[in-house]
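Bench notes, bay 3.
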Amino acid sequence: MIVAVIGLGTFGAKTAGRLFEKGVEVIAIDKDENLVEKIKDRVTHAVTLDITDERSLRSVNISDVDTAIVAIGDNKEMSIMAVAMLRKLGVGRVLARATSIMHEHVLKEVGASEIIKVEEEMGEIIASKIVAPHVLQRYNFAAGYSIVELKLGQKFEGKTLAESKIRQTYSLTVVALQKKVPYITEDGKSAYRISINDCPMPMDVIEAGDIVVLVGNEKNFNRLFIYIEEN
């Protein structure tokens, strides 16, 4: 997969770096040479160019990328022009950062496939951490539905998945268990390795420190969170 990230501010640079860490071929683009210099060792290619310059974009074969992410947040006009240019040059999937409702509307009008609402999503993450501190990660993948990584706490410790009755009581599905497995290193020291069980069975036991991955409706998650927090 080839992904172009346009705009290398804090959000764009972080996104580009994380994609590269996950094995994605990343083309990082910004008109600011200093920002490009900072990220060049953490992506596949880092290029200084003006996103509105069609000839420059063609020179980096932008039409060959699978996805382009327009991460520009401080210049709405530039981000809109970037989306329009990418669509003109044949990029099939363009994700664009929006900083207001009007900005989002215009980005969609010029061809953005998906809208990224960084501020709104960060607000959701912070609120979740306050209300449900046991939640480690939360991914909203459809209206009203989430994938959640969390620690279930002492109320579920030592129970099998069948005994926990999470599915029956809360209509949530356990899709994975992450465990710390102890082992002895070559130099005789105690250590832990991470083991992922991506096909958990009813008799698998929830142990202290396990991270459980659940999928389901947000209302059902909220009922589970209330139960976990109860004394």
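Next record in the batch:
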Amino acid sequence: MRTLLVTNQDETRFLDAVMATDLNGSKVFAVMTFKEFTHRDEVLVKYVMINKAHIDGLDFKQVDRVSVGDVLELIKRLSEQHIMVVEAQGDDWVIRGMFSTTNIARALHIRFDVEPQARTFFELEQVILHHHL
């Protein structure tokens, strides 16, 4: 998986997530520029993690009604490598699982690539200047 889950200290609640692309990509450099850091190791995880409210997910109740093709189309449309399966619990929600394009492609013996998309002005600038994310 290319996503790390951030939990509370006793690991009973899911709080946020950290994407590998954020740790290895432009988000770290954007934080370094904004915070005026000179070294990557000054950037704390809390600066690059994504709040769970901003993470796309499939409702656990819908999973038994969607096909693998539907999941792949959704992941492709979101331009992600995976999507979480979540279930509401009161005012919060919990992770029940995760679909990964890598795992699905490997199991089906197919090739499935997701094109990265720029989501911030910094990432757009990187695409223009360097032709990649």
